[in-house]
Specification:
Blueprint (H helix, E strand, L loop, with lengths): L1 H35 L2 H27 L14 H28 L8 H28 L3 H30 L4 H28 L6 H14 L5 E10 L2 E10 L5 H18 L3 E9 L8 E2 L2
Parallel strand pairs: 2-3
Antiparallel strand pairs: 1-2, 1-4
InterPro entries: Cation_efflux, Cation_efflux_CTD, Cation_efflux_CTD_sf, Cation_efflux_TM, Cation_efflux_TMD_sf, CDF_Transporter
Protein name: Protein p34
Subcellular location: Cell membrane
Length: 302
Amino acid sequence: MRGEDTMHSQSLKLAVGSLVVGVIVLGLKYFAYWITGSVALYSDALESIVNVVTAGVALLAVRISAKPADANHPFGHHKVEYFSAVIEGVMIIVAALLIVHEAYGNLFNPRPFSAPVEGLAVNGFASVINAVWCWLLITRGKRVRSPALVADGRHLLTDVVSSGGVVIGLGLAVMLKLPILDPALALLVAVNILWSGWQVLKESTGGLMDEAVSDATLKRIRQIISEHADGALEAHDVRTRHAGKMTFIEFHLVVPGEMSVHQAHEICDRIEAALHEDDEHSWITIHVEPENKAKHSGVVVL
C-alpha cells in the first residue's frame, strides 16, 4: 500500500508540474508570436494551448485513478487514464486542423514578420523547457505506470520536434528572405501534430479495449506459473489485460481430484505471491478445476 501511495504521489506531482510548465511555455510562445507575427510561431503557440488543456485533463485523470475500488467500480478507477489519453488525442487533432486553417490563408498571401531573432530566441528557450519536461514525463511516467502522463510526455516530444523545425525553418526564411516558408512550416507542424494525435488515440483505445500484455510479458507470466505450481497438473486459458498501472491475470489451474481445498489454496497462494513479486500491480484470478477438466495444453507444471 505504501508503494502504491508513493507512486500516486509521484504521478500527482508530475501532473501538477505539467500544468505549470504548460502555462509558462504557452506564455513564452505566444509572446514570440506577438512580437513577430509569424504564422509558424502562432501554430507553435496554439499547440501549447493544447498542452495546457491536456495537462489539466491528465491531472484530473491521475487524481481519479488513485481512488480505491468501490461498489460501482470493484476493479478500481485505473481506466480513467485511458479516457484522458483519448481526450488528449482528440485535442491534438483539433489543434492541427486549426493550424491548417490559419496557414492555408497565408500560404497564398505571406506576410513579413518583425523582430525574428528575438522571437526565435524566446521560442527556442520555451522549447528547451519542454524538452527537459517531456523527458521527465516519459521516463518517470513509465516508472509509475501512468498512461496519461506518458501520453502527455509523448505529445510534448512532438511539440519539441516541431518547434525545433520551426526555429530552423524560420531562421532560413529570414536569411533567404522567403516569407512563404512561414505558412509552409506551419502546415508541416500541423501534419506532425496530426500524426502525434493518431498515435495517442491508437495506444489509448488499445487500453480501453482490454489489450493483452506483450508476448514477452506473457511468456514471463506463464513461466512463473509453471515454476510455482508444484502439485497442480496444468494451467490453461491464461488471459491478461491492462488497465492503467494494473495488469489483470486470469487462468484455470487443474489439480488432482483427490486434492483438498486447503492444498489447492496453498498452490494458488504460492503462484499469486510469485506473480506479485514480479509485478506488484497485478490483479490475479485463479479458477481451480479437477483433473477431468484438463485440456492437456497451456502451461506445463515443472
